[in-house]
Specification:
Strand order of the largest sheet: 3-2-1-4-5-6
Distance between the termini: 19 Å
Radius of gyration: 21 Å
Bound molecules: NADP nicotinamide-adenine-dinucleotide phosphate
CATH superfamily of the largest domain: NAD(P)-binding Rossmann-like Domain
Largest sheet: 6 strands, parallel
Shape: globular
CATH class of the largest domain: Alpha Beta
CATH topology of the largest domain: Rossmann fold
Oligomer: single chain
Length: 300
Amino acid sequence: MVETVGGEPLFRRLALIGIGLIGSSVARIAMERGDLAAEVVVNARTQKTLDRVMELGIAHRVEIDPAAAVRGADCVMLCAPVGAFAELAAAIAPHLAPGAILTDVGSTKQSVIRDVGPLVPEGVHFVPAHPLAGTEFSGPDAGFTTLFVNRWTLLTPPAGTDPEAVEKTAELWRRCGSMIETMEPGHHDRVLAIVSHLPHLIAFTICGTADDLADESRQQVTKFAASGFRDFTRIAASDPVMWRDVFLNNREALLEMLQRFMEDAQAMARAVRWGDASYIEDKVERGRKIRRSLIEQKQA
Ligand code: NAP
């Protein structure tokens, strides 16, 4: 449970554009705590999603028109797949209130700054952000209030961003339970390529490889999945549109990390072929060390 403070709301009106796992977690926290925003307004593309939001009671108001959702909001958070950001930014930009903070939760940061940055009107503060928290589930039912607790949120404000707006965005995420770090957007994209985007690419690929096997072996794959394959299938269950957009919007960094990975996989293949036991043992030991350090840092 996120700590309930019930103090002065940070924002008068928070508009969430997109209300899947991440947006609906923020909405739940805002509705429960009361000190994130006095009013929560939600936009999505479909009435079905918006009806569900009202059923769940995770917004004060829903709007099918993004322009209507952001009007009068002092904080607007883009929570849709990153491939939709350019179009969404164009739709909302003329309606953003002067002095408002425009932020986002997108998994790629250079593309967001490229797509949204030029459309941000004078007097609106653009503070890109990325909470490093997630599950394989999507949609408004998937969110929960503890998603961000003890997880990092990375802020990547462009040079010259008002420090007060950055601090207010950081405070929003602190109230969601997050720890904050500020990062240069290019660095963010490289780090995320290795810790998140490449592992997802490998998981989607290995599931495809297993699925391509002959029928008999395919049945055995699901039957005996607990031996390791199961962990890949959990990651591979993630939303296809979200991940399509992440891959296409972090193309360079992802391809660079994939290249490095393929070289290392080749080296491992060579060690297996030539019976290089100490190489194999060394690699496994390094993997164990990384896992131990994650456990020590409470990020496991
Ligand atoms: P999700 O559960 O798949 O939900 C996407 C939401 O956006 C839905 O409410 C969808 O509703 C709406 N949507 C889709 N296209 C839209 C558009 N063009 N305009 C307005 N709304 C639109 O998504 P998510 O997992 O919360 O991810 C949202 C963002 O957070 C993405 O940018 C992702 O990169 C980032 N992120 C995700 C994770 C994760 O692990 N899932 C972690 C950190 C950051 P309708 O279909 O009704 O429009």
